[in-house]
Amino acid sequence: MASDPNNWAIIVPILNEADALPELLEHLQHWRDQGAEVVLADGGSDDASADMARQQGFTVIQAPRGRARQMNAGAKASKARHLLFLHADTRLPSGADQRIDSALGDQSIAWGRFDVCIAGCSKMLPVIAWFMNHRSRLTGIATGDQALFMTREAFETVGGFPDQPLMEDVEISRRLKQIAPPACLQEKVTTSGRRWDTRGSWHTIWLMWQLRWAYWRGTPAEQLAERYQ
């Protein structure tokens, strides 16, 4: 059964995604057929990504480059009561719309995320995903790979994603926790493990823990973004 088209929106920040866009749009078309509002926020692609999406009838807006800025712009352009922020290399599980509706239908819940499965070559990826999911349950902090969702009211209450080039998912989680604990859904989204495969699993794990530790100790996100790049 299709969802109320005004009930939830999928916001996707994109930047030069032409190679992967056909598969992404096919995935998004499924959810659009189920009644989701879909908004792609383009950060200035120069590979015709935006034109490709528009040609298939998707709503595409231009936004200042930066994942946080693009997601904020996409949320502003949407009309739905519930917002889900999806990375371009992440895919939702079957029944995601029903699980979100059920979670946010509880008045005590304002936001949440899915468990994650990481697709790639490294044998470490299932272990990495296990730690990501369990760490998130313990801390109440989610990553963007876990497909954050929230009510529009909660999104506006915390001022949307902070205008920073890295750790925007950690920061908005920290702010949302002040409203309510997250709904940690056991259904898994599937995200790409390309950064672990490309950079090496142990190197990437060590880098991400260093960056998170530095962020919690107050290092500006701008400095961390330079290290991450």
Explain this structure.
The structure is a single chain. By secondary structure, the protein is an alpha/beta fold. It has one domain: Spore Coat Polysaccharide Biosynthesis Protein SpsA, Chain A, CATH 3.90.550. Helices cover 44% and strands 20% of the residues. The protein has 10 helices and 8 strands. The protein has helices spanning 21-33, 49-55, 67-77, 96-104, 125-139, 152-157, 168-176, 194-199, 201-216, 221-228, and strands at 8-14, 37-42, 59-62, 82-85, 90-91, 111-119, 149-151, 183-192. An 8-stranded mixed beta sheet has the order 3-2-1-4-7-6-8-5, sandwiched between helices. The relative contact order is 0.14. It holds the Pfam family Glycos_transf_2.
Please tell me the total number of domains: 1
Give the class from helix and strand content and strand pairing: alpha/beta
Alpha carbon gyration radius: 17 Å
Given as residue ranges, the uncertain stretches (5+ residues, pLDDT < 50) are: none
The biggest beta sheet is recorded as: 8 strands, mixed
Short overview:
Residues 10-129 form the Glycosyltransferase 2-like domain. With 229 residues, the protein is α/β, with parallel strands linked by helices. It is 44% helix and 20% strand.
